[in-house]
Amino acid sequence: MPNDSSPGSPGPGFLRDAFSRHLAASGLLDGATALVASCSGGGDSTALLVLLAGEAKRRGIPLLGFHVDHQLRGAEGHRDARAAADLAAALGLSFVFRSFPVRELRRSGESLESAARRLRYESLLALGRDLGPGTLLATGHTLEDQAETVLLHLERRLGRSRGGVRARRSDGVVRPLLPFWRGELRDFLRAEGIPWREDASNADERFARNRVRHRVLPGLETRWPGVTARLGRAAEALTRRLDGIDARVDGALASHAVPLEGPWPRALLAGLDRESAGRLLVRAAGGNGRRPGRAQVDRVLERLAAGEPAFREAFAGRRIAVDRLTVRLTPPARLLP
Predict the structure, then answer these.
(1) Which of 248, 320, 257, 235 is nearest to 277 (CA)?
(2) 101-115: per-residue pLDDT in tens?
(3) Beta bridge partners of 327
């Protein structure tokens, strides 16, 4: 694996050109009226802000830098915020700063890592709404992030129900750096003389992503050179496939005029192929913060296919209740005597 570096690294001008070509070919920023770049101060997001500054200027689109202090790292966190603000100022950009006491705002059972991510995205999306339609919200996910996500989903047994990191989400979040290696982004910054900060918590292997980043993925790359890029391509293919399945599910919901959360007529599920019916159940249950296992989904689908007139099953922390006409997800409390 290229240790924090991409093959070649031919220089900053080449990367700027490659970035522009990628955006032109993908249409990732097409239709944007404003851009927000989330910048932690680390290497990936620093490169994102610098590269987007040039692209936004060329396209005549306003760009804002955005930073969140999670109040977890004390003075180091303050220095990260100052570095991000200074970079935005040097690039002639407006800058938006938010600060949240993540420890206090963490939900029951939620990890600090998950709480920080949730609050960061909630704030980023709120800023996008304030700026209005056409605002795109850019984050600094790279090729390695894509590969790590695939491995994390496999570790959590979600590989068949989750795609990879999406290049553009329906809520306006975009990931312009997905085709690029972390190392080539840092080579670009070095060549430009632009510093970045390293978050010491990124080396803490108590976090699952860090274990994958520092141990699992390098080990796989040593054994099978090129596996990182192949995992990235596999994630893109799976995401496209899931998007097609979701389109079938959404079409069925629309034709029966029922919401994702249900209840659904049995005829709706009967009219879907097995994979799409399972996807409907997974998506609906996932809105409760928990996702059903494959065995749970298969068991429900098998009982439906067998024509059982009525049954109830535990399902992702809830219950699924089926009668002759309807399938519904029901909170467990409603089923108590």
Answers:
(1) 248
(2) 999 999 887 888 888
(3) 264, 322
